[in-house]
Amino acid sequence: MPLLIDSHCHLHLPPYREDRDAVLDRMRRDDVWAVTVGTSVRLSEEAVAFADKTEGVWATVAYHPEHLTSSYHDEDEGEAGEYSIDEIARVARSSGKIVAIGETGLDFFRFDEGLDPDVAKDRQIHAFRDHISLARELDLPLVIHCRDAMTEVIDILREESKMGGVRGVMHFFTGTWDEAQALLDLGFHLGFTGAITFPIKKTQDSATHIHRVVERMPLDRLLIETDAPWLAPQAHRGDRNEPTYVRFVAEKVAELRGMAFDEVARQTTDNAIRLFGLTT
After folding, report:
1. How does pLDDT run across 191-230, given as a tens digit for each residue?
2. In the chain, which end has fewer C-beta atoms inside a 10 angstrom radius, N or C?
3. Residue 249 burial class via C-beta count within 10 angstroms: exposed 0-12, middle 13-18, buried 19 and up
């Protein structure tokens, strides 16, 4: 069992091309495992290929919802290519190192100009349900992405949960306590990133800040993650993120909950191993 698990990163992406071995050396030094997350057919294939050859790394496969309705793409990620649930399913059956379907979900933040918003939302919802069905069929957890669509995501999960076999994690949770409670009631875990290490802004209400969710939620449903290469924690703000920085997330959780770091590390590691079925 490792000390820490980065439950959501993108270690197979180009930002690590030049020094990936050094990043992996730091992970071994700090006793960190990682789950590297697919966001298209091609990138899911690359995630799986990387996990297959790398000890302490596992993969997920999916097609990111934003790619369905926006031509925008991050240079660190590249073009997404066409969506095909059949191709995602093919990749999902290709390796024993695949531990989840995701990241999938809904992202209503940005739609291409000229695309009717209702059409865009329906397209994402249809694909989200495709991924849920695949996760159910393969008995795998979901890794869910949600931006500006929490009500819709929760409604879909409530409906799909009635058919059983729906479990997973809400990646990069930044919502309210009521939203957290709804997801917890459905049996989901919540994943927290280095964003919880950022100082509370003057415009933010500390009484309803994400810190209050971290303090209040059951520890056995809490996962820590980096979303690397993006969004480094406060201690490395502006730098490329990497899995070893998940330690800063664990330290902040310990601080907020008034717990020992070792206890947070042990429990969040147990949580990730149990949810994803990680085995050496």
Report:
1. 999 999 999 999 999 999 999 999 999 999 999 999 999 9
2. C
3. buried
What whole-number distance in Å separates Cα of residue 251 and Cα of residue 40? 32
* Token pair belonging to 173: 């949770």
In sequence order, what are the beta bridge partners of 5?
Answer: 33
What CATH number does the domain located at 4-276 have?
Answer: 3.20.20.140
- Our measurement of the distance from residue 232's CA atom to the centroid of its chain's CA atoms, rounded to an integer in Å, reads 15
* Contacts of residue 48, Cβ cutoff 8 Å, sequence gap at least 6: 38, 59, 61, 91, 94, 95, 97, 98
**What residue has token string 């969506």?**
83
Measured between alpha carbons, how far is 139 from 58 in angstroms, rounded to an integer?
Answer: 16
Nearest residue to 199 (alpha-carbon basis) of 210, 190, 189: 210
Contact 196, 210 (CB under 8 A): yes
State both tokens at 14: 């180009």
3-class secondary structure, 5: strand
8 A C-beta contact, residue 171 and residue 102: yes
pLDDT in tens, 83-100: 999 999 999 999 999 999
Q: CA–CA distance from 158 to each of 42, 68, 126, 245 (Å)?
A: 31, 23, 16, 34
Cβ–Cβ < 8 Å for 271, 55: no
Cis status, amide bond into 179, omega within 30 of 0 = no
pLDDT recorded at residue 124:
98
- Strands 168-170, 222-224: parallel, antiparallel or unpaired by DSSP? unpaired
DSSP state of 202: T
Domain spans of the chain, in order of start: 4-276
Angle at 87 between CA 84 and CA 88, to 5 degrees: 90
Return the closest-CA partner of residue 198 out of 224, 247, 237: 237
